[in-house]
Design goal:
The structure is a single chain. Helices cover 21% and strands 37% of the residues. The protein is built from five helices and 15 strands. The strands form three sheets. Strands 1, 2, 3, 4, 5 and 6 form a six-stranded mixed sheet that branches. Strands 10, 11, 12, 13, 14 and 15 form a six-stranded mixed sheet that branches. The longest helix has 19 residues. It is globular.
């Protein structure tokens, strides 16, 4: 694989067969910075950071990483996500926060360490929740400000200090739409590197209250009939889409 990133975007080739990863010939004239450390080298040939977006030839384009799952297989997407997180990890952890020395990769470890004070620095993963809220045969769908008009999703948010996951789900729902929920059940998880999050999925039932949308968070939110939803998440491989698909199938 030739994986070249620019921020939260991936360089891909646009061919008659669709979007694919670029060949070596297509990237040989690009200005990029190779990643200095590569783990799982048998699976990833090149990990790099694009330096100048304007240098892309016409057959190459940049795709937001959130849409990678729409174009590549699960196995390829896993490698792409892993590689992007590797670069992010290295860029964010160049120096030891205790003594200021350079962090180095150890031959026998898959993380960075400080040779001066012997401190290990592991990749940071932020837990976040996402929840599908049912009300009879209805499902609460929300539209974030950055969504296209046909894209809708579920409520989500990050875990805060001192919270357990159930408390996080209740708080985020109340903050974003002003309702109370009950019967919170864990559904599953998905690594979601935008950046470095672990998305923990839940299903819950509506309990009480009227929807009051927090406009700083959402454009719109409401309950919709499960058989007549207004739209779907932008990423077809996201945990949000998988939860919605399961709820739809179980209602048939």
């Amino acid at each position: 694989m030739n994986l070249i990133f620019s921020g939260q975007k991936l360089v891909v080739a646009n061919s008659l067969a669709g979007i694919c990863l670029p060949s070596h010939a297509q990237i040989e004239h690009l200005q990029y910075q190779k990643c200095s450390i590569q783990w799982k080298q048998s699976s990833i040939k090149l990990i790099a950071k694009l330096l100048q977006e304007e240098d892309l030839p016409s057959e190459l384009l940049l795709v937001d990483l959130r849409f990678v799952l729409n174009h590549f297989s699960t196995e390829q997407s896993s490698f792409i996500i892993y590689a992007h997180q590797l670069i992010y990890y290295l860029e964010q952890n160049k120096f030891c926060s205790v003594c200021g020395s350079n962090l180095m990769a150890q031959i026998d470890k898959s993380w960075l360490s400080c040779n001066f004070c012997q401190r290990d620095v592991y990749p940071k993963i932020n837990p976040a929740m996402i929840v599908a809220i049912r009300r009879g045969n209805q499902l609460l769908m929300a539209q974030a400000h950055h969504y296209a008009s046909n894209n809708w999703g579920l409520l989500a948010g990050y875990l805060e200090i001192g919270e357990n996951l159930e408390a996080c789900v209740k708080r985020e729902v109340y903050e974003e739409v002003g309702i109370q929920i009950k019967n919170i059940h864990y559904w599953g998880s998905q690594y979601w590197p935008f950046p470095n999050s672990l998305m923990l999925g839940f299903i819950a039932d509506y309990d009480s209250g009227e929807i009051l949308v927090e406009r700083s968070e959402l454009r719109h939110a409401d309950f919709f009939d499960i058989n007549n939803l207004p739209g779907f998440p932008p990423s077809s491989g996201s945990i949000a889409q998988k939860i919605i698909d399961e709820i739809i199938s179980s209602s048939c």
